[in-house]
Amino acid sequence: MIDKNEILKAVKETALRCGEIFLSAEKEDLETQTKSGRRDLVTKFDLAVQNYAVSALKKSFPQAKFFCEETKDGNELSGEIVFIIDPIDGTANFVNGFHHSCISIGCLSFGEAVCGVVFDPYKNEMFFASKGNGAFLNGRKISVAKNDLGSKMVMFGTSPYNTELRDTTLEMLKNVYSNCLDVRRSGSAALDLCYVASSKAGLYFEGIVSLWDYAAGLIILREAGGEAYDFSMKPLGFKEGKTSIIAGSTEMIEEFLNTQKTQ
Ligand code: LIP
Question: Which of 34, 91, 210 should be mutated for ligand 1, with most atoms under 8 A from CB?
Fold first, then answer.
């Protein structure tokens, strides 16, 4: 039987230490490599943060499995304890000194949510949740904005690795633009989900994200009273691969869908 509180405590401590590695990049000129294309960036700090997180969590939970963005093969998703890690979410921001990125660590047990931690070292803001125990930002309880999309900002992603979604995304943006307070493209899906979970924004959508982008943020969002679906309105699970995402309270998502009906 796993102890959710013990796992959450270890993940929070690991994320804090990862934040020190993350911030040490400020002292260096960052060398950047590309992965799937010119916009899919990686640095030695993505790898250093991921390697530290895996080694620290494996020390605490030797039986743990890992599903990580920077692992080429050997990712696993089934097991009693599985950590889903995006070592630096918002890599393009990180590489360009645009201070809006985070470390995202989610944990599942046999496919079910256990806990999620999303830590923004620049702002020293740690969003976290464990299943059934609510969601928090630095110890303050958080919850989604219930309704009235017109009074809230909408976060969106541009799926820069998948440019075939450009026109769909911009069409959706155009439709919601006149029906919300304003729109924001932050560059970090994990933080977008946490900003919705803490009512800083009313809703987030993006055409394509990967499991490591959203796993921890989704656990936090659900504990904050929100939900996330793909564009066909199927509730998001914790499956390998990529998916579209719409995230917010049920009513906010309903209001958003109404803005997308043929104008
Ligand atoms: C990023 C996401 C962002 C998405 C980018 C990229 P990364 O994650 O957080 O929302 O638009 O395509 O996936 O690559 O910086 O970890």
Answer: 91
